[in-house]
Amino acid sequence: MNKYKKKTLTRREIKRLEASKRFKDALTRLLDSQKFGSPLTTEVVPPPYKINYLTVEREAGFSTGALRNYPEIKQLIDYECNPDRDFDKPDKANEYAELKFAKQEILDLKKRLVLEKQKIKSIELSLRNSHIQNNELLMALDKVLTPQQRQKIYADKVTGLFGVKHNF
User: Fold this and answer.
1) C-alpha distances in Å from residue 77, one per residue of 31, 41, 42, 57, 83
2) pTM of the predicted model over 0.90
3) What is the extent of the structural domain holding 18?
4) How far is CA 134 from the centre of its chain?
């Protein structure tokens, strides 16, 4: 992989970023409306309301439960609703998101491992085939050579192994 290659976003990532922006915009509208008391700033949710997951989902134009895939937005809503709460401790939604991310990473690594094993098998097969071809070529060459030519080729190898020089 080229580490300098520019990564393009998939459709899913683009939609996820857009949805996250809509949730954040809805939360800011609700907070501004609640702080400054102007009911015209909210688009869907009529006052009086509490800021919670449901009102943010409605204001953003999503169905109930759409925030389940956005733990960072849920944590932001929790912080806005309960500013005195200690948010340094890991949140359950954060733990779930990290677990989900780790599982996805494991799946990606398993896929990568399968691909690497397939590459290794294909390389082993091509190596085995080339070894067979080399053996066939050597056998064909050996059949073509006369006994005197074979003696000339192999005499140097035999003397090198045993240290004895023969004159054939």
Assistant:
1) 10, 18, 16, 11, 10
2) no
3) 11-89
4) 41
